Every structure is written in structure tokens, then in C-alpha cells.
Amino acid sequence: MVFPEYRPRRLRKNAAFRSLIRETRLDAGQFIYPLIVMPGKGKRAEIASMPGVFRLSVDQLAKEAKDCLALGVNHLLLFGLPEKKDAMGSGAHAKDGIVQRAIRELKNAVPEMMIVTDVCLCEYTDHGHCGCIIEGQVDNDASLEILAKTALSHAEAGADMVAPADMMDGRVGEIRAALDENNFDQVPIMSYAVKYASAFYGPFRDAVDSAPQFGDRTSYQMDPANAREALREATLDVDEGADILMVKPAMAYLDIVKMLKDEFDLPIAAYHVSGEYAMIKAAAARGWIDEERVMAESLLAIKRAGADIIITYYAKDMARKLRG
What is the average pLDDT value for the chain, to the nearest integer? Predict the structure, then answer.
């Protein structure tokens, strides 16, 4: 069909037609809203580099969760700021740790909210790396037991799903075994399967004070130049028992999201990370872009690339927009 017989504009001429043929739709029920939990009481501290995002004390979580539920956002991803850090990240798996307390508080106050927990050591170690340090290096195998203990402690506290973010080789299998052996075989694992050593994490590292105190994370997070390696990483996690595969970051890696969607039949998640959020906020604050439209267009792009689940700090704002 060629012009003038075929005119694509016929189906764009008004909102009713555009809605009728829309190929990609966003659904608040597929958003996961990240929350950062901090020590203390009555605390709600806005993060300077992430306007509209707050660190919250445990007693403030229930209200936030209820606000999310009212908008149709019924999944939270918890990160914790411990009162103390040490070389082994022992606060990550403490029974009275910050995330463990947060899970119990949320499950008591808002039982219908699904709680996903980030499983990593970077917020809990005094050196800021995602595993334990032996002879000056991040030791992969020595870190696995700690990560498994952390995931198990989250499940014991009531987490609905755990999300290992550390990028240690073999951690999904180690966590799956620990959960299964302790009667948590129904707790799924959303693996940060393809996590790049990205510059887009800067605002989040400020928010949780998790920047490495020496070196960087390029020895365990992926090289941004590599695409085929993403398939190897994801295949390993599938073989070890992952239930959902995540790509992080999202916007700069939409080709990777599509690659995983085409290759695997598991649900695919994508993390619209702090730097991606902060750039939109900063440009909007200067009047350079229309924040609401850019937010929506960005999240649509992630969904269009193949993400079934979107983790985003814009979850509440986008949910409001979807409700009109």
C-alpha cells in the first residue's frame, strides 16, 4: 500500500483512534517502587540529587506503602541504611537489621503489599564493595555464604521475593539452596542478572553511602561495551534457579532488555536507575523539558523494549498520570 491509498494519519487523527491502536501500555501493577530505609524515628529526608525521593525511618514506611497502594503500585523494593557498618557487612543479615525490621513493619501494617528486598553488601560494608574483601580483593566465593544468609534473613522476616544485586558468580544458586533448605522454596528470586558497571548509579550511591572506598566495581559488574556477555550471565542465573531476570540500568541498555526478552521465557525486569531519574528531574527543573511527558516516554520505551516489570522512582508519579 502506498500514498495516497494508504494514509497512516487516518488512525492518528484523534485520541480515540490513537488509544485504539496503541501497541504498548503501561500498568501501575507492573511497577516496583524503590524505598530506602534509614535508622531513627520520624525521619523523612529528601535526597538532594533525587528530588522527590526520600530516606524513610521504619515508622514512616506504612504511610508510604498505603499511598502506593492507593495508586495501584503494590510492589516495593527495599534498601537499608544500617546504623553501623563493618568489613563483612554483618548488618545485612542481622535478625534486627534495618531491612528485617522494615519488612516486619510493612507486613504488619500493609500485608497486601508485596515486599521485594535488595540482597547486597555494599550498604553494609565499611569499604563499600558488594562482597567481602580478602587480601585486598573482593572475594567471590567467600561472599556467597553471607549473601545467602542475607536472603534467608529477609525471607524469615517475611519478604515476598529477594533480589540479589551483588554480581558475584554463583550467588543465585547459593541463595536458592539456602531458601529451599529452610522451607522457603516458594520465595522467588529476581536476579540482577545483567548489571553493568554504570556511571548512572551516582545519586543512589550518595543516597545510601555505598560508594567504594577504594577501587571500583568493574571486576564484578559488567563492562558497558558488552552485549553477548549479557546472555551468558542471564543463562547462568536461569540455570541456578532465577525466577525473574533484571537488566540494570534500563534506558541506556534497551538493546539488552530486548535481547533477554527474545532469548528467555522468564519475566524480564528493568531498573530505571537513580541517574536516569535525576537527569530528567534536573532538566525539568531548568525548564528544558516537559517532565511528565519525558517520564512517560522513558517508561514506555523500557516497556516497548520488552520489560515486563519496571523498577522506577517515578512509579507513583506515573501511576497518578495513568489514573488521569
Answer: 96
